[in-house]
Write a structure and sequence with these properties.
By secondary structure, the chain is α/β, with parallel strands linked by helices. About 30% of the residues lie in helices and about 25% in strands. The chain has 16 helices and 24 strands. It has a nine-stranded mixed β-sheet, with helices on both faces. A four-stranded parallel β-sheet has the order 4-3-5-6, with helices on both faces. Strand 3, helix 4 and strand 4 form a beta-alpha-beta unit. Helix 5 crosses helix 6. The structure holds adenosine monophosphate and 2,3-dihydroxy-benzoic acid. The site of adenosine monophosphate has 20 residues, from strand 13, strand 18 and strand 19. InterPro entries: AMP-bd_C, AMP-bd_C_sf, AMP-binding_CS, AMP-dep_synth/lig_dom, ATP-dep_AMP-bd_enzyme. This is Enterobactin synthase subunit E. It comes from Gordonia jacobaea.
């Protein structure tokens, strides 16, 4: 499946310069299994299972054959909703092997998100466990299938053994074409699917490996939901696989669970969002009996890491800190491991590739130099459009991606993230679309009008506040009722408002537009 292309002269340059090397995800796994240096090395491990590269490669062939017997065909889009377990890697690479297209959803997504995603993707199947952490994923998949005509199959991720069939020969994918669909954190209620090619994504993974010092000795721990772009590719589990290292997976990022895995497998590297980095840091500062001595690098990203926390992480956990500012649409910035400590603790680093281009502009698109300004970017692994050209206004006319982030550049060219426009709340790395939540709130019978804004929070960075005008001022809705309503409407738990405020009218800007800025000022006051 073709992806809206990069301009021909850029594509030619990326190939000529050896950035895009014409390798597929399936090639990566095959070459690890074929290489005597990695063949018998642990490829992936969780609390219950462990597979070497040869074993993983063999199972992937047989699971792919089983998928084909079920009717999964090349180019089919398949929703993957699997927690951090070995079967995640098996299922995703089996889809790659038969040239189907995984759509990476998170375990926390609910019908409110998945119906739109499945429709937009034209998905034909869903792979998820029957049940996990007390939640009925099978039931959720049935709900999606009932509402989306194209979805005709559910596959039990916990019983891939039942599918094992005789390996088939499969055609090789075209590395320049669509490999999978990633999800955007989203500033609108309409799901924006992110089409990534083998060429562009594998370039970002290999370049990340160089910068982060990933080798065959790396044991990368995914504690964040592994379908997210950060633990997937920066350098994440795919980085570990490209280098012939080990992928370790834990179902929970809690120190008591994750640190057990760190000690057992000799984990060297992991990625955390700021609230988790704080929890790990404070737990370590209080003293721990877990052996964390193998840990070398902890990456923090997904949301702005406070400088005060950044300074404590390294000393508390005995690690080198790396800040990561990235997006599933492409651009990823890193502080370098050998940067001065001030750069590492006060900036979000700089683009990983010499071919990444960034510019800062004002509301009218006029260049503002070192800013602060809205960050726009193009480069060898940043998309030029969303799937099916959704949200064309996210791209400038010359194809640059408008990130929506407000940033500044330091004299040395490092990025400091200052915030975003008012369209999105970043709740400790989990993004809430103000528009999507407002749409839901407006359907509540007791709500006349709704505005969602971010408020500062010492732990999460931001929390979600819903300003509501009640239909009946004497009978206003309350927080518990609003949260229950949004949950029952099928939105992920992290999108429920943290605060509900009832007001009589919204403050307006000079031109009669509701002012989120004024609402934020009221909240701060
Ligand atoms: P997503 O659309 O889910 O891929 O989220 C990408 C967005 O997360 C970026 O555009 C930023 O708004 C935010 N983000 C990611 N990493 C950082 C970071 N280190 N500091 C501040 N914001 C971040
Ligand atoms: O938040 C993100 O989306 C993100 C953070 C760090 C990301 O996509 C990435 C690194 O690749």
């Amino acid at each position: 499946m073709l992806v809206s292309p990069w301009p021909p002269e850029l594509e030619a340059k990326y190939r000529a310069d050896g950035l895009w090397v014409g390798e597929t995800f399936d090639d990566v796994l095959r070459s690890r299994a074929d290489d005597p240096a990695s063949a018998d090395h642990t490829a992936v491990v969780d609390i219950h299972r462990r597979l070497t590269y040869v074993e993983l490669n063999d199972r992937v062939s047989r699971i792919a054959a089983g998928f084909v017997e079920l009717g999964i065909a090349p180019d089919d889009r398949v929703l993957v909703q699997i927690p951090n377990r070995v079967c995640y890697v098996e299922a995703v690479f089996a889809l790659f092997r038969l040239r189907a297209i995984p759509v990476f959803t998170l375990p926390a997504h609910r019908a409110g998100e998945l119906v739109g995603i499945a429709r937009a993707a034209g998905a034909t199947a869903i792979i998820s466990p029957r049940e996990d952490a007390g939640f009925d994923y099978r039931g959720l998949a049935d709900t999606i299938a009932a509402q989306v005509d194209s979805v005709t199959r559910w596959i039990d991720a916990d019983d891939l053994d039942a599918l094992l069939a005789q390996p088939l020969e499969h055609d090789r994918a075209n590395p320049a074409e669509l490999a999978f669909l990633q999800l955007s954190g989203g500033s609108t209620g309409i799901p924006k699917l992110i089409p990534r090619t083998h060429d562009d994504y594998l370039y970002s993974v290999r370049r990340s490996n160089e910068l982060c010092g990933v080798t065959a000795d790396t044991v990368y721990l995914a504690t964040l939901p592994v379908a997210h772009n950060f633990p997937m590719s920066s350098p994440g589990i795919l980085g570990a696989m490209c280098a012939g290292g080990t992928i370790a997976l834990t179902a929970s990022p809690a120190p008591s669970v994750a640190w057990e895995m760190v000690a057992r497998e000799g984990v060297t590297m992991t990625g955390l969002v700021p609230p988790l980095a704080r929890l790990w840091t404070e737990t370590a500062e209080a003293g721990t009996s877990f052996d964390l001595s193998s840990l070398d690098v902890i990456q923090v990203g997904g949301a702005r890491c406070p400088d005060e926390l950044a300074r404590r992480i390294g000393p508390a956990l005995g690690v080198r800190l790396q800040q990561v500012f990235g997006m599933a649409e492409g651009l990823v910035c890193y502080t370098r491991l050998d940067d001065p400590i001030d750069v590492i603790t006060t900036t979000q680093g700089r683009p990983m590739s010499a071919d990444d281009q960034v510019r800062l502009v004002d509301e009218d698109g006029v260049d503002v130099g070192a800013g602060p300004g809205f960050l726009e970017t193009q480069g060898p692994y940043t998309i030029r459009s969303y799937w099916l050209d959704a949200s064309p206004s996210s791209f400038a006319t010359d194809g640059w991606y408008r990130t929506g982030d407000v940033v500044e550049l330091t004299a040395e060219g490092n990025i400091v993230v200052r915030g975003r426009g008012g369209d999105r709340v970043n709740r400790g790395g989990e993004k809430v679309s103000a528009e999507q939540l407002e749409e839901q709130l407006l359907t509540h019978p007791a709500v006349r009008d709704a505005i969602v804004v971010a408020v500062a929070d010492p732990y999460l960075g931001e929390r979600t506040c819903a300003y509501l005008i009640a239909d009946d001022a004497d009978n206003p809705p309350n927080l518990a009722g609003i949260r229950r309503f949004v949950r029952e409407n099928g939105l992920a738990e992290w999108k429920l408002p943290d605060i509900v405020k009832i007001i009589d009218e919204f403050p307006e800007t000079g031109v009669g537009k509701v002012s989120r800025k004024k609402l934020r000022e009221i909240l701060a006051g």
